[in-house]
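Re: zinc ion structure - here you go.
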Amino acid sequence: MRRLVLAAMLPLTALAVFSCSSIQEPVSVPTLANVTMTVRPVRVLLGVATRAEPLMVSARSDVTVLDGDGKTVRDKVSLRKTPVGFTKKAVSLGGVDWGAPAIILVPSPGDHIQVDDTVYAGEIVLVKRGESVAVVNRVSIEDYVAGVVTCEMPSRFERAALEAQAVAARTYVLWQMKQRRLLLYDVTDDTGSQVYGGITGTTGSGKLATERTSGTVLMYNWQFLPAFYFSTCGGRTVNASYLRGAPLIEPLTGVECGYCKASKRYRWAITIPGEEIEGALGQAGYITGKLLDLSVVKAIDGGWVDTVEIKSSEGVKQISGYALRQVVGTSRLYSTNFEIEKSGDKYILRGRGYGHGVGLCQWGANGMADLGHNYVDILKHYYQGAGVLKIY
Ligand SMILES: [Zn+2]
């Protein structure tokens, strides 16, 4: 397997970033002069096949099957909605034992492999793990990014916003690839990493944004930036101490936004009956008695809730805003930037934004693009102090 080569990286502080306001031409960014950068394929975990829920693989043309070392086991293998399974020591396809705990399915030139209902570029790697088989898509980073952009951002968004999204998605996966290089896969295909829909989930605008920013990434301190992003900040992004796994570095300290007012989650309010939140807090093990009151006791960066106080018949307890959002549900309590008002036996939560609040505000990116900013302007606003560089 090829390794990610990051040789002879220049100090970013020595590089100027050139902005270009041209509508038609891609924005010009600095490149690594005379350095050939090779990036290995991304390994995306698509799912885990079990006896109860086998995943189906298929291809229009015959595929070649390789073993885990990349040697051809057999070519011209027909896959027609074939279930992925396993025997005691090996992966099986359609009940046929392949005699190896890992096999690689390589499509014919011009064809692609489908897993359940989704078509993927690249190869499909099947690895037996106990009583299951991990199904991993090994795909070029540019095909991967194209399959992420409009799964993560509406395809109707401005081109510069989609281009900023492509660079953030490319950088995020490079950061993950470095962290997880010795593990079976780099990312999952869902919100645990980045939502990835393969060729099926690739739109024309997502592909164009990927092509126009090909090889362009965010760097900080000679490293790939952990380029977190989310839907809407509601006025200010929050510093990374707020998000588990995000290092507190200059580009993730939070910025004023003011560009995301068009988002319907810029401001919101939800009402939750007291007994419902009492039940949820009880189920999560935070209270045992009756809920008497719920209030914000500490907020940072323009309203992002650090600490919530719960008064119950058993006493007083403090939990994080993050924990309360998990209890209520992340798609119901849109963000952790809120105030709490008690009204009779109900709690009214009035809030700002949607998502975890760290890094790039996607609706803000679209607002900046609407005002004529290019993707480099957008990235340098939300990730202040980071460099934008074309590495291949
Ligand atoms: Zn915003």
